[in-house]
Amino acid sequence: MGSLISHRTVRGMTALGLAGAALALPGIAQAQLVTYSGGDDHATQPSQLINTLASASAFDAAVPSATLYDFESPAPAGLSWSIGSILNGVPVAGCEWRCGYNTTSGGEWYLSHPSGWMTFTFDNPINAFGVVVTGLQASLVGGATWVQFNDGAEQSIYLPAVEGGGGAFIGFTNLASSFSSVSFYSRSDILGFDDLRFGFVQPGGGAGAVPEPATWAMMILGFAVIGGALRSHKRREKLTVTYA
User: Fold this and answer.
1) What are the Cα distances from residue 228, in Å, to 8, 177, 232, 235?
2) Under DSSP, is residue 223 helix (H, G, I), strand (E, B) or coil?
3) How buried is residue 229: exposed, middle or buried, by Cβ count under 10 Å (0-12/13-18/19+)?
4) Across residues 84-97, what is the average pLDDT?
5) CA distance 113 to 131
6) What confidence tier does 12 reach under pLDDT thresholds 50, 70, 90?
7) CB proximity list for 109: less than 8 A, separation 6 or greater
8) Using one digit for the tens of pLDDT, what is the confidence trace for 168-220?
9) Could you tell me how far CA 55 lies from the centroid of its own chain?
């Protein structure tokens, strides 16, 4: 299991999330793009999405004002998508959980995406986005799934290489610039999308914001993890702290 504080590539989880938050002390520049990402192999139901939901929680803590859309009701005004069908929990014939499923507690609906490109569009520009993706089979389809958005320059973020129809959360905040659409690409892989988050976060969390005790603890943990990684000469994992 990987850390939610550094970009560490390990089996089942990749996380860049909270590196910017852990280093967001007064006088230190925040990250412009901070990514929250975690995945779980062979996750056939929501209770098995341990890393996925942990990353989603980290995103929620960073963007508490984000709108959460769980596909259990009509889409909120200003949100649309280019392709896909909202399903009521019935598995795709012959595919079952490997083609995605509902992840909302007490819910049953989710967005099913056949393959190829799919774009979420927002009438009002946002700078924070996140979503749970299920049905991922990286090696089976012979290619990765990635997210793409344009904030004046094309940006791409890869989802964790999850196997066996597992799930992942991918979320990010981009303080440098806002954007009006987020696109996903999957090669011959039917996916499920659920519990989508979007919104706008202000740099620094607002004027005069004082970190709460839990935030300070998270910062200290972040420094400890980063320091430990820098002292290690035997690890093969690559550590990339995402701050600018």
Assistant:
1) 13, 33, 6, 11
2) helix
3) middle
4) 75
5) 13
6) very low
7) 70, 71, 72, 86, 87, 88, 89, 102, 194
8) 999 999 998 999 999 998 877 889 999 999 999 987 653 333 344 544 455 55
9) 7
Among 3.40.47.10, 3.40.630.30, 2.40.50.140, 2.60.120.1360, name the CATH number for the domain at 8-231.
2.60.120.1360
Among positive and negative, which fits the CA dihedral 200, 202, 206, 207? negative
Helix, strand, or coil here: 117?
strand
Query: Does residue 85 register a pLDDT over 50?
Result: yes
Residue with tokens 């939901």: 53
Distance CA 195, CA 156 (A): 21
Give the list of residues 6+ apart from residue 121 with CB closer than 8 angstroms, or none.
79, 80, 81, 82, 180, 181
Average pLDDT of the chain is 75
Structure token pair of residue 113: 């995406």
Kindly report, residue by residue over 108-136, the tens digit of the pLDDT: 999 998 878 899 999 999 999 999 999 99
**CA–CA separation, 144 vs 162, rounded Å?**
9
Torsions phi, psi for 62 (to 5 deg): -80, -30
Residue 60 gets which letter from DSSP?
A: H
